[in-house]
Amino acid sequence: METFTYFYRSGSPFSQWYPCNFTVDEMSFNCAEQYMMYGKALLFKDEGTARQILRARTPREQKELGRKVSGFNDSEWNAHCRDIVYQGNREKFLQNEELLQLLLNTKGTTLVEASPTDRIWGVGLAENDHRIRSRSTWKGTNWLGEVLTQLRDDLLQE
């Protein structure tokens, strides 16, 4: 039977909004959300917004800027967004030993973003909703949970 590790909100180390510092290609990031929105801007060749995202201090600001990326195309974003999130989280966890240990400690479980409002990155249900206990009753795709579960399994095999 499948076992789940639920997470939600910025207080969880598995959240995109969790504050932590990491560097990629000499660029500094303060959370995985910043990396994701920066990657989104670069994907659509919006250098100005990419620079603004790097300067933005909070995940809320970063996300707002990410919504303003010019040239955005939904199908292209959907084709690349999980790879961007994977790469950002790989660096986040590899460069923060205590967070890496928390991720590795979820071995044998599927990570699930228990967001009642996010049906793409989360499952569209809160952790206390009985429907979250079975994939068949989820309201969302759990992309973030899938990315993190895959990342953890890859790191355990390396």
UniProtKB/TrEMBL annotation:
It holds the Pfam family NADAR. InterPro entries: NADAR, YbiA-like_sf. Signal peptide: none annotated. Residues 6-155 form the NADAR domain. It catalyses: 2,5-diamino-6-hydroxy-4-(5-phosphoribosylamino)-pyrimidine + H2O = 2,5,6-triamino-4-hydroxypyrimidine + D-ribose 5-phosphate; 5-amino-6-(5-phospho-D-ribosylamino)uracil + H2O = 5,6-diaminouracil + D-ribose 5-phosphate. This is GTP cyclohydrolase. It comes from Paenibacillus helianthi. The lineage of its organism: Bacteria, Bacillati, Bacillota, Bacilli, Bacillales.
